[in-house]
Design goal:
The chain has 263 residues and is mostly helical. Helix content is 57%, strand content 6%. A hairpin with a 2-residue loop joins β4 and β5 (46-48).
């Protein structure tokens, strides 16, 4: 009977790494630690929430296993400096998003809006793997809270903030940048006789209302087009219907006005 081949040093068999020497001697093997799961990663039907993966409370039963590559957490070795770069990138992405909100107010789905969205997606692609995984987890938390009432949405928002506080804060800071810049520009260009308080009190809320309306119009456009395409409607028809749905003269005017007033 032929003998089994001697494993090479460093080879891993059944979760144990061979250190060398007699392969029949247990001391010449060491257990290989399982890789640390990423937040949101699904393993054997359970989703990791963060913390110590050996504690049961840090896992929750997943509705279903991920079937899309975009749902699988990204693993890559990163330095601390790489993750620090997320801060300016997040601010830039937030500022780009703020500009897109303004563009969407004048027509979500327009060529201008799509171009800005492309720049926004490009910046998002430059974020670190950890930031991308955090963004997926935040999206998952908020998705689960949909249609569950205001209280559940508030709870979801607080939970999402604990996942990626730095990313959310810097993104919010960037989103506010267009309004801040417009206020500063208006203040510098206004006649000296006009009080600064009047300028600030008019510019910031006005631009905020425009961005609020743009946010709602953009959401209506994207969700309408997405739903139609999932229902099998062709691209051209889905685009035309989505564009009509976000128009000020359409049936969703009340939602658009609410977004403007609440901003």
């Amino acid at each position: 009977m032929a003998s089994l081949p001697i494993p090479t040093v460093g080879s891993v068999i059944d979760g144990y790494k061979f250190l060398g020497g007699n392969p029949n001697d247990q001391k010449n093997w060491e257990q290989v630690a399982a890789p640390m799961p990423q937040v949101g990663e699904v393993v054997s039907g359970y989703r990791f929430k963060g913390g110590n993966p050996n504690e049961q409370k840090n896992w929750e039963k997943a509705d279903k296993k991920s079937t899309y590559l975009s749902d699988i957490p990204i693993r890559e070795e990163e330095s601390v400096f790489r993750q620090v770069a997320d801060v300016p990138l997040s601010i830039a992405k937030g500022a780009t998003q703020g500009v897109r909100m303004i563009a969407d107010a004048f027509g979500a789905g327009s060529e201008t809006s799509k171009t800005i969205k492309g720049a926004e997606d490009y910046l998002a692609g430059l974020m670190s793997a950890q930031s991308k995984n955090d963004s997926k987890e935040v999206a998952r938390i908020m998705k689960e809270a949909e249609d569950k009432g205001v209280l559940e949405n508030v709870k979801a928002g607080l939970k999402a903030f604990t996942v990626a506080p730095v990313d959310l804060l810097t993104s919010a800071l960037g989103t506010a940048a267009p309004a801040v810049a417009a206020t500063v520009l208006a203040t510098l260009s206004a006649p000296a006789s006009v009080p600064a308080a009047v300028i600030t009190g008019g510019t910031a809320p006005g631009l905020g209302a425009v961005m609020g309306a743009g946010t709602v119009k953009g959401t209506i456009y994207e969700e309408t087009k997405k739903a139609l395409k999932e229902a099998g409607v062709d691209e051209k028809k889905a685009e035309e219907t989505a564009l009509k749905a976000q128009e000020y003269g359409g049936k969703n005017l009340d939602m658009i006005l609410a977004g403007a007033l609440l901003s």
